[in-house]
Design brief:
single chain; globular
C-alpha cells in the first residue's frame, strides 16, 4: 500500500468485498492483528513519554541520553547527533500537542527510520517509500478503515511528512556518511562545544568533514 511523500488524502471510499471463506468479523480480527504490528514494539514506554512531557528541553535531552546510554556526548559527535535527532523530534511532537499514543508512534517512527538507514542501509528513495507505506497505515487514506486505527489526522500526517523532509531527509547523505564512514570517530580527543538544541547537529557534522 504505497503512498507518495506528499499529502495524505482525506476522503474515504467503501472497502472491497469480503473474500470467500471468511466472515467480516474474522477478517476484521486478522486485519487488526496485522495493524497492531505497525511501528511495534514502541520505542518509548507510556511512562517515559509522560515523564518527559513535564521536562524542559534540557530535561528531555538528559532523560533520552540516559535511555540511549550515551555517556560520552562531549567527545562522541555521532552520539550527540543521534541524541539531537530524538530530542528534536520529541520536542516537535510536544509542540504539536500530540496525545501519548501519538507521541509513542511518532517516536517509534523516528527510531525505525534511523534503524532502516543505519542497519538496513536503506536508500533515501526506499526510506521515503517506506514512510509513505507506514503513513498509509496509521493515517487517513482513501481506503475505509476503523476510526480507532487512524493515529493521525490529515493535518498531523502532512505535518509529520513536512517535518521529516526538513530534518532527516534533508540531511540523509550526512547521516549515511556518519554511519558508513570507516572512521570510528569523526572528532577524536577534542571536546565538542555545547550546541543549542535548535541547531541541527547534522550541520555540525558537515562543518567537521
Amino acid at each position: 500500500m504505497a503512498a507518495s511523500l506528499g499529502t495524505i488524502p482525506g476522503g474515504a471510499t467503501p472497502s472491497g468485498a469480503t473474500p470467500a471463506g471468511t466472515t467480516p468479523e474474522s477478517e476484521r480480527n486478522a486485519e487488526f492483528q496485522e495493524h497492531e504490528k505497525i511501528l511495534s514494539p514502541d520505542f518509548l514506554s507510556v511512562s517515559q513519554i509522560t515523564d518527559m512531557l513535564t521536562e524542559d528541553a534540557d530535561g528531555v535531552q538528559e532523560k533520552l541520553g540516559a535511555f540511549l546510554n550515551f555517556k560520552n556526548l562531549q567527545t562522541c559527535l555521532k552520539d550527540a547527533i543521534i541524541l539531537d535527532y530524538y530530542v528534536s523530534g520529541f520536542l516537535w511532537a510536544r509542540g504539536m500537542n500530540f496525545s501519548i499514543v501519538q507521541h509513542s508512534k511518532f517516536m517509534t517512527l523516528l527510531d525505525m527510520l534511523l534503524h532502516n538507514l543505519r542497519t538496513l542501509h536503506m536508500s533515501l528513495e526506499d526510506s521515503i517509500k517506506w514512510l509513505g507505506e507506514v503513513m498509509a497505515e496509521i493515517g487517513p487514506t482513501h481506503i475505509q478503515k476503523p476510526e480507532e486505527w487512524i493515529i493521525f489526522d490529515v493535518k498531523q500526517a502532512n505535518a509529520i511528512i513536512d517535518y521529516l523532509k526538513i530534518s532527516l531527509f534533508q540531511h540523509y547523505k550526512l547521516y549515511e556518511f556518519m554511519f558508513y564512514s570507516a572512521r570510528e570517530e569523526i572528532v577524536i580527543g577534542t571536546e565538542i562545544p555545547a550546541v543549542p538544541i535548535s541547531f541541527h547537529l547534522a550541520e555540525v557534522l558537515f562543518l567537521h568533514l
